[in-house]
Design goal:
The protein is built from 8 helices and 2 strands. A hairpin with a 5-residue loop joins strand 1 and strand 2. Helix 3 packs across helix 4, helix 4 crosses helix 5 and helix 4 crosses helix 7.
């Protein structure tokens, strides 16, 4: 088996060398760099910026949806669900994994949703519910629970099951000192 692979590699190498032989040094180097880029190969010798493969350019391979279409598809019913959906949209469609309350408000307006009566309060409630968490420099980010919730929507039963799966620990009660 190894012998067959070695023979195939030698044949491939021979083909490449024969194909590059008629070109000058600079043209060969350019062709080899292009082939490396095409196959996503980093040989470590390249000190310039590493080219990215086309599949690496997008944060996710999702169809392009406007915020309005996305919110219509998910049908959030509460402010907390709406914040989670908008955070999901920012993370996956706008490649903005860390965001501020103002970013949530802006994409909410862009989605033609009803304005939050108090956006900071709604974001705080979504954080307390476990759908968002703190990120760098006062920003927020979507938690895995928040992602699961949005992925479950608009299926209400699945969304309830996701929220119910979050196990909250009750604080321990301290025993009172009783005098006998």
């Amino acid at each position: 088996m190894l012998e067959r692979e070695s023979s195939r590699e030698k044949d491939g190498l021979r083909t490449v060398i024969e194909a590059l032989d008629p070109y000058d040094h600079e043209t060969r180097a350019r062709i080899l760099r292009t082939v490396q880029t095409f196959f996503g190969i980093d040989n470590g010798a390249n000190t310039g910026p590493r080219p990215t493969a086309p599949r690496d350019l997008a944060f996710t391979d999702r169809p392009s949806l406007s915020p309005k279409e996305f919110m219509h598809e998910k049908q959030p019913r509460t402010d907390i669900e709406r914040v989670a959906c908008l955070a999901y949209y920012l993370t996956h469609y706008r490649e903005t994994p860390h965001f501020k309350t103002l970013d949530i408000s802006k994409v909410n307006t862009e989605a033609a949703q009803i304005k939050f009566s108090n956006a900071a309060f709604s974001v705080a409630n979504a954080t307390n519910a476990g759908f968002l968490t703190a990120a760098e420099r006062g920003s927020k980010q979507l938690t895995s629970l928040g992602e699961e919730l949005v992925n479950a929507l608009p299926d209400r039963e699945r969304a309830k099951a996701v929220v119910a799966s979050q196990r909250r620990r009750k604080p321990r009660r301290r025993a009172k000192n009783r005098k006998n």
